[in-house]
């Protein structure tokens, strides 16, 4: 069973991230991801970047479920924190 820290490391191996927070129970995980690699990408493309990078883990069911709660650029994340 995976830990949130292991899933975080998997995400960080896929994209250069300025911030990643992962919560979960070993089966279902929820992630907040901030990455400059999201610049100029639509929301779906941001999610696809991460999910495609984790495709083998998802297909093998090693990583059962990952919900990307936030996929923001550093500027978007900073603005959201001020709200």
Automatic annotation (TrEMBL):
Pfam families in alphabetical order: BolA (PF01722)
Gene3D superfamilies this protein is in?
Answer: BolA-like
Instruction: Kindly give the InterPro entries that the UniProt entry links to this protein.
Output: BolA, BolA-like_sf, BolA/IbaG_stress_morph_reg
Q: By its UniProt entry, which PANTHER family does this protein fall under? A: BOLA TRANSCRIPTION REGULATOR, BOLA-LIKE PROTEIN 1
Entry's family note = Belongs to the BolA/IbaG family.
The molecule here is called BolA/YrbA family protein
Organism listed in the record: Neisseria animaloris
Lineage from the top down?
A: Bacteria, Pseudomonadati, Pseudomonadota, Betaproteobacteria, Neisseriales
